[in-house]
Design goal:
Distance between the termini: 29 Å
CATH topology: Ribulose 1,5 Bisphosphate Carboxylase/Oxygenase
CATH architecture: 2-Layer Sandwich
Strand content: 25-35%
Shape: globular
Structural class: alpha+beta
Number of helices: 3
Helix content: 25-40%
Order of helices and strands: EEHEEHEEHE
Number of domains: 1
Strand order of the largest sheet: 6-5-7
Radius of gyration: 15 Å
Number of strands: 7
Oligomer: single chain
Amino acid sequence: MRYLITIEGYTYGDEFPTKPMTDIDVRILSLLMEKGVAVIGTAERAMCRDDALTCVDLLSCHRVAILGGDVYYVRGSGLEPAYENWYVERVAGEPEPVFLERSYATAREYIQAFPERPGRRPLFVITVQGMK
């Protein structure tokens, strides 16, 4: 099975990337590959709460907007959609720094507040704006 992540239109995985990777590309890819769980049928990787919050911190340090995310549950040996998500849109006229901070705050609050359910552990997929 092949695991991939797409950053600004370039796909990275178990083959050589199609463009040089930046420090943020490497750090996030490492986090996803080492700790993320493959979402079967997609190129996405889901992370536990603590790893998702670490990812938010990495993205924040590198000023990459978080556009939203999806939630899955670990159930038995697989994942199932929780049919829960969040999203953040930039408001017309909103300065980019304000939008970025709001995107990080929204992601942190959602991930931290998402409830545990008996027999189901939540995992989070984070959607980001293309990285420069």
